[in-house]
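Researcher: For the annotation table, I need structure tokens for Cation:dicarboxylase symporter family transporter. Please keep the output clean. Sequence:
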Amino acid sequence: MKGENKKIVIGFFGGVTDALVHVILKVMYVAPTAVFPLMSNATRSFGCKVLLLLLKLLAVYRVALLLYTFGIYGSSIKVFSNTSPERFFREIYKAQVVALSTV
């Protein structure tokens, strides 16, 4: 592509990216407010059993996440590097806290 055409294409896709980011940010801003009425409606329709099922799902998700993080990921660190998993997790702790707090 020539220089001028390249700038036009890059400008177009840059504009599309900016528009998509704007739409996604608006949806993410409204999402917590929109989820509450949906959960209220589900609770009214199906009773409190649905909340108990969601809590069970959350518990299973957490257990699976812990098993993956410390089991699979920790084993991979031990096998494929000379670093102990304890040291690795201790070293990346601050980065994980920053990543979690900026979501």
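Researcher: And a one-line annotation?
Model: Residues 3-46 form the longest helix (44 residues).
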